[in-house]
Structure formats: structure tokens, C-alpha cells
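Q: Hi! First time asking for a complex rather than a single chain. Here are the components, and I think there are two in total. Is that enough to go on?
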Amino acid sequence: MTSFSDLNLDPKVLKAIEATGYTTPTPIQAGAIPPALEGRDVLGIAQTGTGKTASFTLPMITRLGKGRARARMPRSLVLAPTRELAAQVAENFDNYAKGSRLKKALLIGGVSFKEQDMLIDRGVDVLIATPGRLIDHFERGKLLLTGVEIMVVDEADRMLDMGFIPDIERIFEMTPFTRQTLFFSATMAPEIERITNKFLSNPVKIEVERQNSTSETITQILVEHTPKAKSMAAKDKREILRAIIERDSAKADDPLRNAIIFCNRKVEVDVVAKSLKKHGYNAEPIHGDLEQSHRTRTLDGFRDGSLKFLVASDVAARGLDIPNVSHVFNFDVPSHAEDYVHRIGRTGRAGKLGTAYTLATPADGKYLDAIRSLVKADIPKGENPWTPPGGGNAAPATREEEDDKPRRTSSRTRSRSKPKSEDAPPVEAPAQVAAVEVRHEPAPQPQQRNDTQQNRNRSRGGRGRNDRDSGPRVVGLGDHVPTFIELSFDERRDEA
DNA sequence: AAAAAAC
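A: Yes, that's all I need. Here is the structure of the assembled complex.
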């Protein structure tokens, strides 16, 4: 078994790792760090929770150790899809770069440019950014990416989901082709494949399975409910949610200590958070419409335990590393099956046990099917601890007056009936997220490139990035005008 | 049916 000390990392980095208490690299770290240190491109196929972040920060710090940043010319660049993820990478970087003199800047939206500008002006070794803000800085002429030696794309599949791929391509094209690229994605969708073929050069491909501690430690439970009317679904689910919270808080083993409650829509996040608060629960919402400072504060509160219930949109579904989350609730069944895996992966982390509830109504059938087929397993059904007043679950409507309210109004917080949190024995059967195949492919063949000329002539203006494999035809950087510069603002906007 | 990311 390798240990970090076998990995040729900078002694100062090793010291910082030691201080964190880790001794053994995770599979993605063991696979990615050695080639990354050699300067090779790396294609890492790994989920969050596999130690992915350290697998690029550690070699980056080591490799950047020598050399010095120049004003406005960062030496490395890390791209992350959300502000929170970027901030998390920055934190990780701070931890491991303690002993070094490396300067870093975090470029994310929602905060002022001023401070970010100042840092860039002084020169940074590491730039950690979300695509939008990075491009904004670039457009203002505050930033040159021609000095980037190492570029990291984290959570590429999520970037794809969020429509960032064109931005990512533009950013790739602003950096020198001589850069080293470390590229991470949980899946290899065709579009991701295309990007990696285009921008990675003879990468070392490392594919690791979802960490056991994630899948095997999560108890998944499906709670089904048939509302008397469709419009009652949300209200009923809020009742069910509280009933489960009450029941599981009182459990002897693996009791509920805290929870992330995922909703599909931002308005629903607000409604559920408000409703929980109204019922005396310590809950706060988090989603993209909230001010960044508020988002940060809320997340910090949840991390340090002062906030017990985080009601979240999918902004918090992926990548966020929050240890000690005992429960995850899918208040809504996610409409993208992969999001299910990401959401429930927020619990059961670092070897701890976790419970993931999914509240479903008959309308969710086809999404549940998609989830079942993705995880290649059934989600065990658990008991619904809430009984609607005056009747069974599937009984015909008797309280129509409540149902007929317009949707907006009825989804406002009006929940009032006390949950009947009888001690229905929790029916739990452990389910596992299907393991992803493990494949280590240390050295795939070089890509065959013979379309250099076509690439060069493409209307988007970027020269073919693949020229790298077919000889030193591209000389220097001067002939390359970043694509987005050639487009007007309107064109850029229309492209998006 | 949506979320996220730039002013």
C-alpha cells in the first residue's frame, strides 16, 4: 500500500498532509498524483467524496513550488461549477499550501471585483474560479491566461449540465497549449468525451469506483404518498417530512442529528424552510437566488452544527463536503437520476452511517424508474409515518376545500396539523448505490490527430488544440486570438 | 417540472 510519503510530493506539502492526519492516499489520489507530478495530463473519472480535490491540489502545489507569479498572469487555474465548490477548493488549497509561498485568488460571482482585482494585480500562482466571473475579469482586461501552466476542470459533468461547456472551451482556448490539464468528471458523457479529446493530450486515465464509505453506509428509504389531490402533494410532504424528523430523532440507533432537505425548485426550498421554521425547527434555505454572503453564512452554520436543517436546491447537491450529515431528504424526487446519487452522497460520508429518504407521489413514477435503473437497485420502501387527518393514504378526497386553493397560495406555509408521530417502526433495508466499475488505465494511447488543418480553419477562430500531438506546428501564442474576444457581447449572450 | 452562473 502506498503512503503519501512515497509520492514524491514537496516535503512541505507532506508536512501539511501529516497535520491533517491522513496517511494513505485514496485510489484517485494514488492514481492521479504520480502522473500529475510528472507533468502529464490526467483524466480522472471519479465522484465526489473520493478525495478528488487533493488529487489535484497536492501535485499543483508541488509543481508550482518553484517559480514566481507575475502580475495578472496566474500560473494555474482551477474551474469549478458553483461558487461553493470553488470556495471549497480554495480552502483545501489553503490547508495544503500552508508551508509554501504560493499566492491564491478565488474568483467567484456575488462578491465585489475589487478585492479579486487587487490580488490578481499582485500576481497569483493559483486562480480558483467559476467560469462566469473568470470570463468577466478577462473581458475587463484584468487577466491574462497565457501564463497558465496547469489547468484543472473539476466536476466537468456538472459543468455540462449547467451549460458551461462553451465557456470552458473558451477558457481552454485562452490558455497556452503547453499547459498541463487535469480534468475530472463523474461520468463520461459524449460531450465530455469530445472536450477531453480536444483539450487533453495523451492523458493518463484514472477511473475509480465511488468510495465504499459512501454507498455502503447509506440506508435508502422510499416513502410513498398519494395525496388526495395533486395540489396537496407539497403540503402533505411537509407533514411527512416533519413526522419522519420526529420519529428518527427519537431513534435509538443512528438517530437524526441534522439533515439536508433537497427540493427541485427554489420557491419550494423557501416554502419548506419557512414551514420548518414555523414549526420550531432550526432550518435555513440555500439556493442560487440568495445573496452570496447569506449562502456562505448558512453553509458555515450547517458545517459547524449551529444550523440543523439545511433546505437546499441542487446548488448543494454535488461535491460539497460536509461531514456528519446524518440524514438527507429528497423532498422532491430529482428529475435527473444522477442528482439522486449526488444528493444522497451528502450523507454517509467518511465512514459514517447515513440515511436518505425520498418522498414520492404517484406523479414521480418515471423519475423513480430512472433512478432505479441508474443505481441498478430498488429503493426499499419505508413506512409513511403520517396519516392525513380523517383517512387513509389513498382514500378519496374529503377535504376538497383545502385542495382548491391556487397553487401558489396553497404552497405557502400554512401547514398546521400536528404530525402524528406515532412510533411506527422504521422499515429499513439497506440499499447500495451500484458500484461503478474500477478501471485503472495508466497510459492510454496518444490520440490520433490528423484534422489539424480543419481545426485551424474553423469559424470559431481557435486553432486546433490537438496540434500538440501532431508536431510543433503552432509557434508561440501570438497567433491565437481567444474566440470570445472575436464575438460581440450580444453574440456571446446569444450563444449561451 | 429546474438549477446554476456575470454585471
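A: Residues 47 and 210 of chain A are 6 Å apart (CA to CA). Let me know if you'd like any chain examined more closely.
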